[in-house]
Here is the input.
Amino acid sequence: MSEDIDDISNLTFPQAVGRGGTLRCPACGGGKLFHGLLRMSKACSACEFRFERPPGYFLGSTYINYGITAATSTVSYVVLHFGLGCANGQLLPGMVTFILIFPLVFFRFARSLWLSLDCYFDRVGASEAMSGSRPAGTRDPDTVERR
Ligand SMILES: [Zn+2]
Here is the structure.
């Protein structure tokens, strides 16, 4: 298991983005993050890195999803309207369809990127998610605090 922890501590930014973009485990790049269309696996099938996180953890993935959707639609509009001269009336149905559909399609990738980038920026939290430890952000109920 120490090899897996080494993988997390040596995770580079391109690796994090690559593993996030391909819906793979951020720790080893082997296991799939999702089984089925929307169901996330609880842990990596290859290295047992825990994907399950406390409630609210994946809220940040909505920022990634929103940002990519807004950037893509803005660039598309500028290129199509100002570059190719398409009228607003022609663009509206396609743009509205894109803005409604793309975030649904990108949902899994946004979650995967959020998890991978969190592992890249928070190595301690990521190493805590390796097997044998509790989900990140939770406390051991058996631990008694002493003051
Ligand atoms: Zn893994």
